Automatic annotation (TrEMBL):
GO biological processes: translation
Coiled coil ranges: none
Cellular component GO terms, alphabetical: cytosol; small ribosomal subunit
Name of the protein this chain belongs to: Small ribosomal subunit protein bS20
Pfam family, one: Ribosomal_S20p
Sequence similarity: Belongs to the bacterial ribosomal protein bS20 family.
Length: 87
C-alpha cells in the first residue's frame, strides 16, 4: 500500500486509467472481431470504418502502440478486400 499522499493519488489515478483503458480495449477488440466475422463485403466495409476509427483513437491516446494500430488496420483492410473479391 502507498504511504505518501502523492503515492495514494497516483494509485487512484492509475486505477481510473486502467478501468478506462480496459473499456476502450474491449470495445476495440469487439469492433475488430465484427469485421473478421462479417460475411457480407458491404457489411465488413462498414464495420471496418468503425474499427479503423477506434484503432486510431486508441493509438492517439496511447492505449495501443501506433504501429499496432497500423498493422491491425492493414490486415483488416486486406480481409475486407478479399471478401469483396470473393463475392
Amino acid at each position: 500500500m502507498p504511504n505518501t499522499k502523492s503515492a495514494i493519488k497516483r494509485l487512484r489515478q492509475s486505477e481510473r486509467r486502467r478501468v478506462q483503458n480496459k473499456a476502450v480495449r474491449s470495445r476495440l477488440r469487439t469492433a475488430v472481431k465484427r469485421v473478421r466475422t462479417a460475411t457480407d463485403a458491404a457489411q465488413a466495409a462498414e464495420y471496418y470504418r468503425d474499427a479503423a476509427s477506434l484503432l486510431d483513437r486508441a493509438a492517439s491516446r496511447g492505449i495501443i502502440h501506433d504501429n499496432t494500430a497500423s498493422r491491425s488496420k492493414a490486415r483488416l483492410a486486406a480481409h475486407v478486400h478479399r471478401l469483396g473479391a470473393e463475392s
